[in-house]
Amino acid sequence: MNKQMTAADAVARLRDGMTIGFGGWGPRRKPMAIVREILRSPVKDLTVVAYGGPEVGMLCAAGKVRKLVFGFATLDAIPLEPYYRKAREAGELELMELDEGMFQWGLRAAGMRLPFLPTRCGLATDVARLNPEIKEVRSPYDDGEVLLAMPALNLDVAFLHVNVADRLGNCLVTGPDPYFDHLFARAAKECFVSCEAIEERLSLTAEQARGNTFERYLVTGVVHAPLGAHPTSCPSDYGWDLEHLKRYVASAGEEGGWSRYVETYVTGGESVYQARNGGPARMGSLPLPVF
């Protein structure tokens, strides 16, 4: 029943060509310690499914993404993820760009083991024009309404980051927004969760249980990764590191910028990463952004 493992153990389960989903939202509660472990690995030719943030750009910059299925790719305060932009402008990606609602509908379909779910989202828009593989269906009832059939976004693996987990796979999100992590967990054959804190067994109050949005049976492995969402935010523990994100964005406009970023922040492992970002005390005290 002990599902604890290392980030390297989790990433070792990946194979070239897999479809991988990343929880979180833009630069918020992304499993970045696992993303950095993927960057250190040889895995490639991935289909990445995400409400995208820096994980999308970094994996694109490393040449690991064949196809991107997404609602957006943003750093919020910095509107467009820079390495995603470079890859897209260079024509390096196969894309399925979706309305945010269609995206979560595709995850829901996968979680319910359905081939598609009908929706009005995307009708008479460029979403349908740019994704001709998305078909229309007609209601079999008297209304006869024509709808889009959003295909299931079936995942081989999902990676999520939460505030607290236990070794059994129970998870707790203490921030105000669980995003759509529960849908990623249900859409995947295997789900790996990194966490800020790990306990032997969670004991939740009725109020806390609202932050436990998916069942432990869905979790394949638990990775203890303190500060593992950095440089994205992890409410209620710490905010995003805008100083780091600005350096990351600047590197996209520099000759050899990505190689230097990798050498500085990825190659040496997580202890070096934390040291080069001012250490755990600084990283853990980053203020939460106010919207």
Description:
This protein has 291 residues and is an alpha/beta fold. It has one domain (7-97, 154-285): Glutaconate Coenzyme A-transferase (3-Layer(aba) Sandwich). 29% of the residues lie in helices and 24% in strands. It contains eleven helices and twelve strands. The protein has helices at residues 7-11, 32-40, 54-61, 82-89, 100-111, 126-130, 181-187, 242-251, 257-265, 270-275, 279-284, and strands at 4-5, 19-22, 46-52, 65-73, 94-97, 116-119, 135-138, 146-151, 155-166, 171-172, 188-199, 221-224. The strands form two sheets. Strands 1, 2, 3, 4, 5, 9, 10, 11 and 12 form a nine-stranded mixed beta sheet that branches. The radius of gyration is 19 Å and the shape is globular. It starts with a strand and ends in a 7-residue tail after the last helix. The model has no long low-confidence stretch (mean pLDDT 97). It comes from Pseudomonas japonica. Keywords: Transferase. Pathway: Aromatic compound metabolism; beta-ketoadipate pathway; acetyl-CoA and succinyl-CoA from 3-oxoadipate: step 1/2. This is 3-oxoadipate CoA-transferase. Its EC number is 2.8.3.6.
